[in-house]
Fold this sequence. Notes:
CATH architecture of the largest domain: Orthogonal Bundle
CATH topology of the largest domain: MetI-like fold
Shape: flat
CATH superfamily of the largest domain: MetI-like
Structural class: mainly alpha
Order of helices and strands: HHHHHHHHHHHHHHHHH
Number of domains: 2
Strand content: under 5%
Helix content: over 70%
Distance between the termini: 57 Å
Amino acid sequence: MQNINLQTKKRIYKFFYGTNGTDALFSKLVIYLLLISIGFLYLYPMLYMLSNSLKSQSDIINPMVNWVPTAFYLGNYERSLVVLKYFPTLFRSLYITVLPAFIQTLITSFIGYGFAKFNFKFKKVWLVLVLMTFVIPAQVYMIPRFVMFFEFDLLYKPMAIILPAIFGQGVNSAIFVLIFYQFFRMIPQSINEAAEIDGANPYYIFFKIAVPLAVPAFITSFLFGMVWYWNETYITSLFLGSAYPNLQLRLANFVSEYQQIYASEQLMRLNEGVRLAATLLIILPMLIIYFIIQRWFVEGVEKTGVTGE
């Protein structure tokens, strides 16, 4: 009887703690349950949008049709492409997304390297000021910036988005400064000293030594910058408006645009499928870019210790 109780206790202990503390069945079940739950929360909206965007109007109003449509209907995507003026607007959106993100990544890498490798007067004060640009809400200084751009005749032009990135004041630039600051600090100072002994100047050291070592940080910063610029609607609507609309602004005015284009066609009434198709078309470019550079992005997140928002 005692042997049976002892064996039962061992089995219970092994179930909760395993044999060496790492192979417990209970901990594996908890981990997999959490992963499945988190994956479901992320995948469910995407699957819901994809399913409903492929439904015809009859399938949408039919309560018997849930996830799988009776036939794959691409009319929602065709109408969304027309209303969004997709391809011309896509090129404009990429222009005010990729270019500022690239410039911002380059400029913030210079700033982060300077803070990490050089000592100068009021270094800590300047670092605090950089952090303050992230702590202070952007809405606080949008009106002065709007007035300044108006006086310089930059409003409703792409330069209103690109110019702040050139001066290290793009969307969440302070975060990228800290990414590069942290990454460049991990590079041993002895490498720079050895290069200086060999006659290398600071520019050579940065471009030939620091940049190749910091490729994960560059990829991480560039991808985050692209996503934030792509999803930014407040700044683009304020500085660009209807003069240079991107896909997000087109989506915001989707209902009125749709009703104007299809006003004479009663059968083309706006429905949930059309809206979800338009939303997926706007998400698609970022998904494609992420899948292309996913491996480098994950490596960069692991090395820089940055998480998404």
